[in-house]
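hiii so um. not sure if this is the right channel but i have a protein structure encoded as tokens and i wanna go backwards to a sequence. like what aa goes where. can anyone help
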């Protein structure tokens, strides 16, 4: 699925593959490396510990425009290593995603 927006210049479309790549890059941050892996909605790991296909991960991501129209809701599943602070991990991942998307605007 792609996220589309109509403007006076035409239609802007963003594929889930782009969001998947940004999320995958967030997994490489110091606080996340070797602590988080992409998963399907049913909790099955996508790929192996070392590698996974971004296009496979893109199929497990849901991107919807929010009701206010100025943001998007991104939903995806991960597997987290036992003993890892989920709160710290989600803060790092969400901050990285938000900062990266803001920079690319």
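sure thing!! here u go:
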């Amino acid at each position: 699925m792609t996220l589309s927006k109509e403007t006076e210049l035409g239609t802007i479309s963003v594929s889930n593959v782009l969001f998947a790549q940004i999320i995958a890059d967030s997994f490489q941050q110091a606080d996340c490396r070797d602590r988080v892996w992409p998963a399907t909605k049913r909790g099955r790991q996508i790929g192996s510990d070392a590698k996974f296909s971004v296009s496979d991960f893109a199929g497990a991501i849901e991107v919807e425009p929010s009701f206010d129209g100025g943001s998007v809701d991104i939903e995806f599943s991960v597997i987290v290593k036992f003993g890892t602070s989920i709160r710290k991990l989600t803060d790092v991942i969400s901050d990285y995603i938000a900062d990266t998307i803001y920079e690319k605007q």
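oh and The helical segments are 16-26, 54-58, 86-104.
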